[in-house]
Sequence to fold (149 residues):
Amino acid sequence: MGIGLISPHLVCEGASEAIEFYKAAFGAEEMMRLPGPDGRLLHAAIRLNGAMIMLNDAYPEMGGHSPKHYGGTAVIIHLMVDDVDALAARAVKAGAKIVMPVEDQFWGDRYGVLEDPFGHHWSIATPVWPPKSPEEMQAAAKAAMDGMQ
Fold:
């Protein structure tokens, strides 16, 4: 079924619109949706890169709030893809905002961060360098951090 041992569950203001966005931006496939009596989605599921992501509409009367309610999110969903630049362009065209532009990073990925129209953050990456040893990674991290000061 494409259900992993851990599956993100996103609360969205406009879960039906979120499903359409994830299809357009990331190529997600809709698995199912269960609307409630008032039309809000009680539960839905999409498949993205072979994994299931669950989502539902915000239900503030039951304590279910989206990132917009909190003014942001502390969670980033990571998505590994074959062509991060193409995915970033596709997602922006569908309505995502760039939080961190896609660039080569010291740890070996071409990496960036997007915010979807529902307040969720997505890091997107494509590996571009061979894996580094722990010593090489530590030296690269130090050089990157030293460059920020």
Remarks:
- Residues 134-147 form the longest helix (14 residues).
